[in-house]
Every structure is written in structure tokens, then in C-alpha cells.
Amino acid sequence: MQQALRSNKRIFGRPVRFSAALMMTALLVAGCDLMPGTGQDEAAASEGVQHLDVSEFENVTGISRLRDVQNPIKGRYMVQLLLRTQAEPLDDVLGRLNSLYELDIDMVFRNVFYGFAAAMSRDQAEAIAADPDVLYVEQDSYVSAAETELVDGASDGLPWGLDRLGGGLGKYAPAYGGTGVNLYVLSTGVNADATQLNARVGRGINVGYASPWLAGILGTQQPAALLQLLGRKPKAAEKEQTDDCHGHGTRMASIAAGSSLGSAPTANVRPVKILGCDGRGATSGVVQAFEWLYSRYQRPAVLLLPFSGSKSRILDASLRSLLQKDMLAIVADGDSGSDACDVSPSGVRSVLTVAGYGRGEQRPATASGGDCIDLFLPSEAIDSVNAQGARQLTSGSGAAAAYAAGVAAQLREAYVLEDKLSLYRRLASQTVDIQLQIGGESIVAKTLKVPQR
Predict the structure, then answer these.
(1) Residues 134 and 149 in one domain
(2) Is-contact 379 364, C-beta < 8 A?
(3) Which of 64, 80, 165, 378 is the most exposed place for a label (fewest CB within 10 A)?
């Protein structure tokens, strides 16, 4: 089966990279819960962890069970428990570990990842990595917004990015606008009063700095804790708790769903605040967001992940577990200047990873490369609005991913009953070739063209 998929499925023109994504998507669709969401923000979380993806950790033993990362948050770690411990109440397992190792546990994960995050010293981390109930320990790390440049101002007339999506015809009037689709934007929050979003911002969650201890490390201006400790389920945040004190989240939402700037001008926006006022957050906060989404997302859904961090096995495995649910995930390549496969979450093969290009079909100097990139969309000097409602031109792969997320929302509206595999195929059917300049060389890449009314 694997060989057949690799040789026959050529979605987005990258048979090795996206055939693997296609295979993963097919498996996820076959096993996911396709029943519509309840529509209730306080729906109970699923019990059991049989769906968890632990393939990342199957061959780790001894000291290799403790992994350092780039851009670490000093004195903070995430711990993956052995799944056999689910036979015992999780709170009991945590109580025992806390008693043995004197941990400061402040995040607990039950659905996308079975374990916890805690403040601890290096010696404590080494000790807990050797515990028989522990599978893997990873140092927590920073993630940041996928944005490389920002200037005040606006384009004259139709934004060039929308013109390219529309096929260069000087207009952008898509047949579908994403009406009724929930676009979850994982960033710095969203200004619900932004005129471009026309009161389409729904309730979301603020999890980026759920730990008071972590808030102290990352800055005193972060929001107050919304999560109770030891696994009590977070409540949905009111709009003011997901307000944008940085601007990136509102910019991404306006590019994806703005009434005149967005690729899906009628989609609903659901803010998932994982980044703080400085545009940074923690990998553990991202995993907590995935945990919330697992049981509380509302169909039809598209995830926009316009951020990036160092390679994290726990983040990647948690995202794969989340994607057993019926949602499409669009990810920025991260602007790392290196291989997109080597950072998170762009290296996850069951997502759609989007890179950017400029007006002259030039790839930015900060652009990532590698086989994990599926599509190239406009990403330089893209029209947006910030948290204060002012027009700004933003650059970075986050903007390219936001455009792609809007197109995915269009397809979600048009084919609401179809599964993810079918929607990925429909998205692939809207690709065209584009000639891009990279380091003085010309390559043929895939971009999106949106059918117009």
C-alpha cells in the first residue's frame, strides 16, 4: 500500500513528500471521528488515549529519553508517560511523580499527548527520564510568529496577493467565501472589533501562557492563567481574553478572512492565543491548544498555524493525534532559512506546508526549503489590518499560509460533507505551475488559483 501511494499519488506535484502526507491523511480519515461537533465549547473531552501517536518515541531508551532542543526555555520540560499508565487514574500517576521528584506540574495533557509539562531542574529531568512510567522527556522551547517584516501602509486597489490567487485578472470574486466555516487562528489572539472581520470572530481560547510560572519567565505583560492545574479542563475564553496585544493574529485573520483583504471573506474566525505580546510562546502552550481543540473544535474546521519553532517530537506527535479529527491544517514553512522538515510544525507530513514568494517571483532570503513544502503563495508586502485596525503590509510565510487557509475554508463550505482526503484532492486540482527564482536559479513550483464568479 505504501509503495502504491508513493508511486501513484502526486498531489501538489511532490510525490515523495505529499504522497506520505496523503497516506497519513487516508489513515487519519479512516480512523477519525466524522460526527459533527456538538457546537458546545464546554463539551466533555474524550476518554482514553488509544488514538495517540507515539511513533516518535518507539526506539528511545536510556539517556536518549531526555532530549534537548534549540531555543530552550530554561528550567522547563514536557514529559510523555507510558500509555500503560492509563490503567491508573492520571491524577494518581502525577501525584506519585510529583511526590518522588518534587515537580512543579502546571499543564496536564490527556488527549493529544499523554503526560504533562512542569518546571524542573536538569537533575530532576534526568531522574524522571529514568522512571519506569516515563517514555520520553523533552525540554520546552520557544515558538514565534512566522513574520519577517512589517510596515505601515496599504496597496492601491486590489492587493497583489489576491490578484495572484484570482489568476491575475485584476479581480478577486471567489465562488465561495468560506461561509459557516470555523477558521482557527493559532497566534497572538484576534481583535474581535476589526472592521475587516465584521463581527465574525467567535469564542476561542487563551493558552499561550497558562502557567503563572511560565508567564514570569516570558514576561510580566502576559495574560493571567486560564487553566487550572492538574488536568482540569480549560474553559473557553471570552473575546477580551483573546484580544491581540501584538498584531500578528489579527493580521493573519484579515489575510485569511478579511472582508476585502481575505481569501475567504465570509469565514468565521476563532482565535487560539498561543503567543504573547512579544510574538513568542511556548511549545507546551501549543500542545495545550491542541488539547483544547481536540474536544472543543466545531465543524467544519480549518486550522491556521502561522508560527514556527525548533524541532519538537512532542509537538509533532500531538499535532498528528489532533488531526485524527476532521480538520484541515495549513502550516507556515517558518522562514527559518533551512529545511522546513527540520522545524516544527512544518515538518509534520499530515499537514499542508506553505512557503512564500514576492512580486517578482523571487523567494525571500529567509525562506525555508526542502521536500516538506507543498505550495508557494504570495508572502511579501501582503495587505492586512493590525490589532488597532490600521492597515499594514506584512511579509513572511505566515501570510502565505493564511491565504491557503482561506482557500481551504472555501472548499470546506462548498463540499461540507466530504472527507479530508477528498478536500486535499480538490485543493490539488486548483494548483497551477509557477516559475520562481531561488538563489539565481529558476524552478517550477505549485501555487493556487481560485475559480472566480
Answers:
(1) no
(2) yes
(3) 64
Please list the ranges in the chain whose pLDDT falls under 50: 1-11, 13-51, 62-63, 210-235, 239
Give the C-alpha separation, 141 to 148, whole Å.
20
pLDDT of res. 6 = 25
| Cα separation, 427 vs 215, whole angstroms | 40
Reduced to 3 states (helix: H, G, I; strand: E, B; else coil), residue 353 is strand
Instruction: Give me 429's grid cell.
Output: 486540482
Domain of 16, in residue numbers: 2-31
Same domain, 291 and 399: yes
Task: Write down the pLDDT at residue 324.
Answer: 93
| DSSP characters over 255-297 | HHH-TTT-SSTT-EEEEEE-S-TTSEEEHHHHHHHHHHHHHH-
Residue-wise pLDDT for 193-251, tens only, equals 999 998 899 999 998 554 444 444 444 333 333 333 333 344 455 545 899 999 999 99
Are residue 75 and residue 13 in the same domain, yes or no?
Answer: no
- Please state the pTM of the whole predicted model: 0.84
Cell of 442: 529558476
Distance between CA atoms of 264 and 254, rounded to whole angstroms? Answer: 9
**What's the number of domains the chain is made of?**
3
